């Protein structure tokens, strides 16, 4: 099949209908669709479920909510569960903050309601107030050790240590410990969110975290290529350089 045929097939699977002619900007939409669905979607061994998890994570980081809504629907269409979709958005919170994540959750829930999905979804938390640090540390330590605590230990009045504890408790305790997505998937999505944010420093650490979690370097590169249509070439080149280095 040529890329137009591939695009049409992929579009049908994701959005449940044939590509129409855009009423005001048909040329731009044709270029966009053929590139995303006719070319990028064919590179690497990512399936459509993983591609949509990456896409909704990146769109959440970018706060492009109309496109996020469309891809939440696409994620449902390719067989992702509401829980998996929700967890991908929740996973963004330590990287982009709570307000942006709340915006994305509101857009996601609107799509869920339109699809007759009852809210709230089932609780996926596994930690308690008493053990969230210990559970978080047990997840964080094999991947990252005490890197953050060591880096900021000289900040006065123990605030550096507190910052490190916040990371352990929130990112790894409250979020990474949740059921619904594997840690391997969460790490891959983290790389894509960091790419969208232009955060090449943390990308170097998360390259190692991904490899330890079981992702191959080929999978990481394929995930970065999936980001190209949504974040542009410069940010992906910067991410590639960080990963390569």
Automatic annotation (TrEMBL):
It holds the Pfam family CMD. It comes from [Clostridium] methylpentosum DSM 5476. Keywords: Oxidoreductase, Peroxidase. Residues 26-110, 163-244 form the Carboxymuconolactone decarboxylase-like domain. The keyword Oxidoreductase applies. InterPro entries: 4CMD/NDH-1_regulator, AhpD-like, CMD-like. GO terms for molecular function: peroxiredoxin activity. Gene3D superfamilies: AhpD-like. This is Alkylhydroperoxidase AhpD family core domain protein.
